[in-house]
Each structure stands twice: as C-alpha cells, then as structure tokens.
Amino acid sequence: MLRPATLRPLQRAAQQPALRAARRTISSRGSSKLTQEFDLNRLNSQRRDYDRNRTAFLTAGAVAGVISFIYTAWKLKQAISEKNAKEGKSGAVKFDAQPNIPTEQFKTEAGELRKIIIHDEDGNEVVPTGNSTVPLFPRTIDVSLPLDKKEQSPLAASISDSAGTQYTLVGLGMRSVTFIGINVYLVGLYVATQDIARLQHYLVKNVNPVATTLIPSEKDTLRQRLLDPVEGEALWDAVLRDAKLRSVLRIAPVRDTDFHHLRDGFVRAIQARSSLDKPAYSDEAFGTAMKNFKVLFNRGQVPKKQEMLLCRNESGALAVTYDAGSSSKPQREVLGTVADPRLSHLLWLNYLAGSKVASEPARKNIVEGVMEFVERPVGTVATQVV
C-alpha cells in the first residue's frame, strides 16, 4: 500500500497537464479577442476611408458637372450673340423693302430722347425694334372690338373709323427667358390716342400738381419714380385703376411657339402677383376669370411674326385677338373676352412695374416713351398723331 508521501508527487504530476491546458485555453481566448478587436478597427478605418473618398469623388463630379453646364451655356450664349450680331450686320440683305432700317429705337435731339419713326414701303409710320426677325412695329394700330361699342366724342370720331379705334405706341421691348437670354417675343404697349391726355394728366400731376407739362428736372423725377420697384408699381396701379385708359399689349413672337407656352407665362405672372394680396383675389369670381382666360389659349401653334393683341378697355375688361393671316391680308380674330378687370390689371403690371417684370427692356422703353408725352402740354399729343 502506497504511503501519502508517495501519492503527493503523483497527484502533482497529474494536475500539471490540466493546468497547462487551462493556461493555453485562457491564452488562446485572449489572443482571439485581441485579433478580433484589431480586425474591427481596421475595417472601421477602411470604411471611413471609403466614405471619405466616395464623398470627395461625388463632390468633384458635381462641381465638374456644374462647371461644364455653365461653360456650355456660356458658349451657347456666345454663339447666339455672334449669330445675332452677324444678322444685324447683314440685315440689309433680309430687309429688301427697307434696306436702311436702323437698329436703334431712340435718337437724341436737343438733349432729349426721341422715338425713331420711319415709313415702310406703303407709307405707314413704323418704329424699328432692333430685331432682325420682327424689324418693325407700327406706330399706330386700329383695333375694333366688341368692348369699344359706345357713343363717341368728336375727338374719338376723328381718330376712329370702320377699322376701329386708333392706338399709339408708347414703347416696346424683347421678352427673354432663361439666364442665357433666349428671345421669345416682342411686346409693345399702345394707348388709345384719345386717352393719351388722361395718361399725361395723371403722370404730370404726380410730379407737379399745378403743371401741364414737365421740365427736364421734373421728367428725371418722374423717370426715377416709374423705374423704382415700389413707387413705379404704386403709380401704374393708380393709373390703371383710375385713369380709365384703353390700351393694348401687342405681342409678336420672334421664334415659333404655341398658345399653351404663352398662356403659361401669362398665368404664372398673374398668379405671382395675386399671391401678394390673397384676400383680394381669392374669391370665386376671380377663379372663374382665370379659368376663362386659360380657355382662350386652348389652341395650337403660333408661328413667328404673327400678331397677338391683349386689349384692355376703359373698365378693365380684357379681349384677346390673334392674326393668323399674312401682312398683306391680315385676319384678326377675337379669341374671347374676360370681364373681371383684376385679371388684366395684374397682367399689365407684369410689364410695367415691380421688382421683376416680364421684359426689362420693354419697361425702360415704355418709360422713355412716356417722357415724350409729358414734355408736351396735356391734350396736344392726340392732335399731333392725327
């Protein structure tokens, strides 16, 4: 029988392999955990690098895309400008009947701007537009509308005939879209010749209540007011509301377009201005007027050079006409009318006043045309036109 002293070395020898196995297990678990933590840190680092590189790549691509778009648009605008310049220089080839059409719309006489007026091949007074596609606008137009049926005064009879009421050009300009300036149509403002005296009266009295005409310094004051976004809108708003003017916006496209495109532009302008005073334009009557206005443009193409007239009578009712004929055989057709004066009021302001107008060249040209009126005694312009 073995003694206890003999058994203790045997027990220690039996326990040593188990201890070594336990140490190896603990050591291997610690090593595996460290390895896993090292792998996760490395993967996180790789992910951050990937995200950073991806963001930098996408940003560089977006910047390159914007730069290439701007560069392409700039080259396109440059090409269009060069083409327009060449057409302007070679305009005499296109205008066989009028080889000497000036490109300027005003000339300076005695320190004042004067509208350039020439005669076409039929002897009619016309005004150069500076555009090769539609080079001329008539100085006066005769318009006959259902809105005009009323008893006429002697002066009205002298400037009205079977062709309709005579309207005199105030100013015109080009309507352009997009930041590269694509020309769409020329627009001119005409005022009934017999109503010019009322326009003179309102504008002159706004500057000098006791004057019948304005001197140069007073004209500068009026010019600044008309071009000011706030004062100009207030002044034109009062004229359109109180002066009872009959007026026409004559539109002549310089490129092929369609009625829907023109309608969308008009509607956006009206909605933008009506949104500034929602209580005044949120009723059912104005909504119906907008619907009726849109219906007038449910038509097809509008070729370049064709005439469209937006006509506003003394009460603010709107009539739209379109001439689908040729210059030798006009076929002016009334597309329809809208009685609510608020609609035409907003549409006219879109060309005349505010911080953003449909055509800045037209607004400035109209203001210069107004200066020609107010420098003459009130009531004398109509007799000079006749």
TrEMBL record:
GO molecular function: intramolecular lyase activity
Residues annotated as transmembrane: 55-74
Keyword set, alphabetical order: Isomerase, Membrane, Transmembrane, Transmembrane helix
Keyword check for Ubl conjugation: no
Ranges of biased composition (kind: Low complexity): 7-20
Pfam families: Chalcone_2 (PF16035)
Domain spans labelled Chalcone isomerase: 165-367
Chain spans, region Disordered: 1-31
Domain of life of the organism encoding this protein: Eukaryota
PANTHER family: FATTY-ACID-BINDING PROTEIN 2
Listed name of the protein: Chalcone isomerase, subgroup
